[in-house]
């Protein structure tokens, strides 16, 4: 599988697009600043998540379009317009909320598929991971001494 496809699929399944690790969400729809496993920095710049919003809108409207056209074609000529309206409203209200977290990791995957980390970013990821491991070890040390 190609690098691009692998990063896109990792993001589409809510994983770190760089290393494939799980646990990248701090809470519903909120990513950690960095991947807990590899140290990859998720938010690249101010306004970075605009791409995730676009992905969310595209998925929502694609599902709405499929629902609407399929509903018309399957029930033609007596189309239940009220049912299609209610179903469309539900799709446009529920899908963006459900898809919100995945849209973020998917956007990171799409970005990473076309813009690979440069050596400076790779070194920053290694340093961030080492600092994270040192903090974890420091937090565990008092617990082990008291127990």
Overall number of domains: 1
Q: How would you sum up the major sheet?
A: 2 strands, antiparallel
Beta-strand content estimate: under 5%
Number of strands: 2
Helices and strands: which structural class? Answer: mainly alpha
**Cα Rg:** 21 Å
Helix coverage percent of residues? 55-70%
Tally the helices. Answer: 4
Low-confidence stretches: none
Distance between the termini: 47 Å
The H/E string reads: HEEHHH
- How would you sum up the global shape? elongated
Spatial order of the strands in the main sheet?
1-2
How much is the average pLDDT? 93
Q: Would you kindly provide a written description of the structure presented here, covering whatever features stand out?
A:
With 147 residues, the protein is mainly alpha-helical. Helix content is 67%, strand content 3%. The protein has a two-stranded antiparallel ribbon. Strand 1 and strand 2 form a beta hairpin. Helix 1 crosses helix 3 and helix 2 packs antiparallel against helix 3. It is elongated. The termini are far apart. The mean pLDDT is 93.
